[in-house]
User: Fold this.
Amino acid sequence: MGMARSNPRGRGERRRTPAPNPTGQVKHKLRFAIGSDFATSCRIQKQIMDEVIRQGFTGPSIFAVRLALEEALANAIKHGNRLDRGKKVRVEAEVTPRQIRIVIEDEGGGFERSSVPDPTTRANLEKTGGRGILLIETYMDKVRWSRGGRRLEMIRRNADGPPLRG
Assistant:
C-alpha cells in the first residue's frame, strides 16, 4: 500500500504500490498525512494529479479531479482544521485508468452539509467564497460526507477511460 508520512518540515514522502483490482487493472494507492499547510497540500495535489495523468485521464476528467481535489483540501485545512498546523489532514487516493477515488479527512469539529448556504441564491451570488462544496458536488460523479462532515469521499470516472469489463 502506498504510504506517505510527514517529516518535520511538512514534506510528504510517497510510495506507490500497484495492486490488481477485480477488473484486472492496476490500482495505485496513495496515502498522505499532512499538517494544515497549503504549500504541502499543493505538493500532494501534484503527486495525485501526476498519477491521474499517468493512468490515462484526459481533458474534462483531469479538470474535474484537479478542481475538486484543490477545493476539498482547502476546505479541510481552512474550515475543518481552522489553519491549525498541529491538526492533520489525511488523504487517500486510489487511481485506475477507469476512475479515481479520493478520501480526505480533517481533525476539525465537522459540519452539517444541509447547513451550508446555497451559493446560487440571490443573497449569495456576489459573495467571494462559499462555492467549494458546490464545485466538488458538481464535478465529481459521487460525493459522500461522513464522520460529522470531517470525512469526504469523492469518485470521478475517467470519461475517456477503458470500457467496463463483464
